[in-house]
Amino acid sequence: MNLKMIQKVINASDKYDLDLEITGISTNSLDIQAGNIFLTINSGYLYIDDAIKKGAVAIITEKENIKANVPVLYVCNTKKALKTLASYFRSIYHGKVIAITGSNGKTSTKELLKYALAKHYRVLANPNSENNILGISKTLLKLTDEYDFLILELGMNHKGEIKELSHLIKPDIGIITNIGSSHIGILGSKENIFKAKMEILEGNSKINLYVNGDDPFLKQVQAIKVLPKIEYPNINKYNSALVSAYLKDLGYEEAEIKDLMESFPGIASRLTRYYYDKHIVIDDAYNASYESFLEGLAKLKQYNCRKIVIFGDMLELGSFSEYYHQLVYDELKKIDNVLVITIGNETKFLNNEFHFLSLLDLEKYLLNFDWNNDDIVYLKASHKINLSSLINFFNNLWLDK
């Protein structure tokens, strides 16, 4: 790959010796490797000198009059150039592309599938939850035929977003985990959420689609409908069933699939268990919706001790917020030996006695709380509530005590 080819793809300025060989493209100056192009996004042009010091051999930017001792290719819009380059990298890739979407469980399913495929194949996946057009385009810039599989989690919060992503990545395999209430405040109904998720089909008419066969919306579509047969610790049964079904079709033996499911280490803040001398804390606060709450509570009901549920706001529910928060609270009240503590603006109408507006106030309360020796604490809220930060509090409270 050389600079001339890149210049042609993005239709950038051509006033340099463009036969320069490059080793890759990065949008983050901190990640620059020797021989990379540095593509500036937003205020990224402020870090051009840093990128060059780390080995960048050329710059792509929309910022005018950049002075540098390496070639600078000017474009009108670097985000558009990023997407154009991402599309090009996808077009020359010969491996399999797997796209995963759904209201809940996207990241867990992606990481589980990545873990299982990596036992025999070379796998690239989008990191964390960089699942929008910008994040997925950045991942595509790393794509080469060195990888047998590309696994991409597709996120969305409005109609047409997954359609755009599907046209960009042209998935060979599609997986839809479920249709839930996440983003219902924006999309207006589960029916609209279902239609938005089905946009995964737009990029490839020959896609092989795997769906949750118990979901009332997904059971209606023409696809491979998957039902859970085995429930594994720390993994949602539908996520593991979907991954297992694809692995089986790929040629994995059932015994190996079982071993992989049981050895999967899990993902931080998704039913992550922290064990102390006398207590257990379950951090399930990476994100929250009514449906994912039900999954967590099903795990919680397996314990016979007192359960302390710290319930934070579920966001992006719009006019449906009170309805879904009340549904969760009603489910909580059905659990034996449970104490519910709420935090945030959306949960305050539920719980006058044990409600807090800030994490600081909540920590002050928990510091003097009358703990039982075998209490289990369950944390659940949308990511922005930052409820997972309480793990540091519990570490300070209970470790080495």
Protein architecture, described:
This protein has 401 residues and is α/β, with parallel strands linked by helices. It folds into 3 domains: 3-75, Udp-n-acetylmuramoylalanyl-d-glutamate--2,6- Diaminopimelate Ligase, Chain: A, domain 1 (3-Layer(aba) Sandwich), CATH 3.40.1390.10; 93-263, Mur-like, catalytic domain (UDP-N-acetylmuramoyl-L-alanine:D-glutamate ligase, 3-Layer(aba) Sandwich); 272-398, Alpha-Beta Complex (Protein-Tyrosine Phosphatase, Chain A). It is 33% helix and 17% strand. The chain has 14 helices and 16 strands. The strands form 3 sheets. A 6-stranded parallel beta sheet has the order 6-7-5-8-9-10. The chain has a 6-stranded mixed beta sheet with strand order 11-12-16-13-14-15. The radius of gyration is 24 Å and the shape is globular. The model has no long low-confidence stretch (mean pLDDT 95).
Kindly report the CATH topology of the largest domain: UDP-N-acetylmuramoyl-L-alanine:D-glutamate ligase
- What is the spatial order of strands in the main beta sheet? 6-7-5-8-9-10
**Tally of DSSP helical segments:** 14
Distance between the first and last residues' Cα = 58 Å
Biggest β-sheet description: 6 strands, parallel
Rg estimate, integer Å? 24 Å
CATH architectural name of the largest domain: 3-Layer(aba) Sandwich
Strands, total number: 16
Helical amount among residues, as a percent range?
25-40%
**Beta-sheet strand percentage?**
15-25%
Return the average pLDDT rounded to an integer: 95
CATH class of the largest domain: Alpha Beta
Low-confidence sequence ranges: none
- Helix-strand pattern: HEEHEEHEHEHEHEHHEEHHEEHEHEEHEH
Overall 3D shape? globular
